[in-house]
Design a protein that fits this description.
Number of domains: 2
Strand order of the largest sheet: 3-2-1-4-5
Radius of gyration: 19 Å
CATH class of the largest domain: Alpha Beta
Order of helices and strands: EEEHEHEHHEEEHHEEH
Oligomer: single chain
CATH topology of the largest domain: Nucleotidyltransferase, domain 5
Strand content: 15-25%
CATH superfamily of the largest domain: ATPase, nucleotide binding domain
Number of strands: 10
Length: 259
């Protein structure tokens, strides 16, 4: 089985693939100083609950945007799994990168682009695909009509925006994000939810619209992933949500590496 690890700024996702099937996926808060043994305890307990164990894992691939975690994750794999993990770089991703500095593009964004080519190639058409990843940052990644990674946009993440409001304004509470019942909030909390939710709907509409105008051709297919993607499922700004997009991309890279 393959252990795929997706390290984001907020969470780390561990997933086990049996062939092309995801046997399970689990989240752990990202903490750069978490040691190898802590990763082992967490993952061992989770695997046992699902009837699996370390001996089922034969390969490890890791996509990470947090370099500070690499040493301890590598130690975990070598000490507890007796495996040397592959940390994904742009050189592992078999797609064209149409950027001024390809080396600056986050591994997760390229992995998503590959997953689009592998699983949503029929959607690319002449308009391309826009991938919106709702993470610590909200990223917009463009896969053009030829399947190349063509750049994109980066905006503050939803939780980051909510926390900034709470931290910078002493009278504004910390709120959970959900779709408000109406745009006109009748309390401070509801007014904040309205501003955040409808503000992001507007942000998505404007950025995807501008990207579409710059690309020309047909309207791009808008594909979303990330923890808060479901928040906008009924907002009319997203065509499809795939929460496993990055994991599918990691599996595709592994399969390319092994023929």
């Amino acid at each position: 089985m393959l252990l795929a690890i997706d390290v984001g700024n907020t969470n780390i996702v561990f997933a086990v693939f049996d062939g092309g099937i995801i046997r399970g996926a689990w989240r752990l808060h990202t903490y750069a100083r978490r040691c190898a043994d802590e990763y082992a305890v967490f993952l061992h307990q989770i695997l046992v609950m699902d009837g699996l164990s370390f001996i089922n894992i034969h390969d490890v691939v890791i996509s990470s945007v947090v370099p500070e975690t690499h040493f301890h994750l590598g130690c975990f794999c070598e000490k507890h799994l007796h495996l040397v993990p592959v940390f994904i770089t742009k050189d592992h991703v078999p797609i064209t990168i149409d950027m001024e500095r390809p080396e600056d593009v986050g591994a997760d964004r390229l992995v998503n682009a590959l997953a689009v080519n592998m699983h949503y190639g029929e959607r690319i058409g002449t308009g391309g695909v826009i991938v919106i990843d709702f993470g610590t940052a909200t990223t917009f990644d463009v896969i053009n009509a030829s399947g190349a990674y063509a750049g994109g946009a980066i905006a503050p993440g939803i939780d980051l925006s909510v926390n900034a409001l709470h931290s910078a304004a002493s009278k504004l509470p910390k709120i959970g994000v959900r779709k408000p019942a109406q745009a006109i909030g009748k309390s401070t909390s509801e007014a904040m939810r309205s501003g955040v939710y409808w503000g992001y709907v507007g942000l998505i509409e404007r950025i995807t619209g501008q990207i579409s105008a710059e690309l020309g051709g047909e309207k791009p297919f808008v594909l979303a992933t990330g923890g808060l993607a479901a928040l906008f499922e009924d907002a009319g700004v997203i065509d499809l949500i795939d929460q496993d997009l990055t994991l599918k991309g990691l599996l595709a890279i592994y399969q390319e590496m092994h023929g």
